[in-house]
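S1.2 Input.
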Amino acid sequence: MLLACGDGSRDGNGTVRVEFWHAMGGPLGEYLEDSLIVEFNATHPGIEVIPVSMGNYRALCQKILASVMADDTPVVAQAYETWTSQLIRGGALVPLDSLMQLADPSITYRWWNDFFPVFRENNTFDGRIYSFPFNKSVQALYYNVELMDSLGLEPPKTWNEYRMVLDSLTFDGNRDGDLMDETDRWGTAFSPSVGMFENLLLQNGGKLLNEDSTRTAFSSTEGVEALQFLIDLIHTDRSARISSGYTHQNDFLDGKVGLIQGSTVSLSFIQASMRRMEEDGEDVFTLGIAPLPAGRERAVIIAGTNVILFRSDTIQVRAGWEFIEWFTRPEQQARWSAATGYVPATRSSLDHPAVREAYRDYPGLERVMLQVEYAFFEPQGTFWYDGRMFLSEAVEIALYGRMSALEALDRAAELSDAEMESEPDRIAERYSGR
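S1.3 Output.
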């Protein structure tokens, strides 16, 4: 039930103010604030969306939880599913399907069903729609086209091919075994990543949770195989090295690494770096992009946040909903995707001229984005906030050789299962079968 109207939601001119808390930085935040939000405000007289950047997701989460405690929430905010579950439990959010029902049912049905199934499931909690997709991404392979061509290589379609391609890309010029000289090249480099492990786990046919979502399932044969694959690239094949942060992207651009995995959003940052290199007179290569290789099954994990609507004055709720609805329409989704590299949330967005132009520039990009057809999402329950941290620690510990894959995953599973058991009134999972 929406709260009664008050007069604090309007300014002196009768404009409804909608505060939107987000964590978008750099060119992503600039496009959001200076293009899309400016356009919305210009085309929706009587509503002013006020973007407030919190700088990063940790700060955003802390601010949101503090605002709920202080009864001083924004109207709209970015949120991960684990936060959303906690906010639902606290009664802080408006079910968005209650607002969808106010429109023409036939129009609403077509619009909702235009979203890819994974996004419809990902934003549904206990049968109610509490959020809409905002900045969603999938993983991709980025490669140096000229280098691959010179070695007679193509983007790998399976993980076995991936391993062989990395071996071919690795070059030890003086054969000293350290791959640290200027002429040396690693096949790939990456930071320890839960997402990389999850993709391999799912492609092996494994799961993050058991069938009834009561315990973790990643410490399995499929999980151990997935983590061991990454360990072997580093310690057995010596075709991959561990990097920190995003240094692997810089090494890739400098030719010290043959190919890398990255989010689709990495494309906009790599493009910007290549433009700066050209302006400085440096040589740049042709950038290629391809989907992840396939395992026993095709699967990819979806990353990124959704947008939620807080309980507030009815007039602010309606205005906040108008912004969410506008932002997730195909026209805006297409331009948001083309400008940032985020996955278009709706199928019809793929036919928009802005998206088609981006796909012409990078022939593999469409296949990368269409990985959403077989995408899965992480658990929604609040326990996963800590559970994911435990899994992240396990991946890092194993990659650095401080524990075996099995030991690290068993430890993470034990800690995560204890967290699940202690979580009161847990939101029932709608966890996409994995």
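S1.4 Remarks. The radius of gyration is 23 Å.
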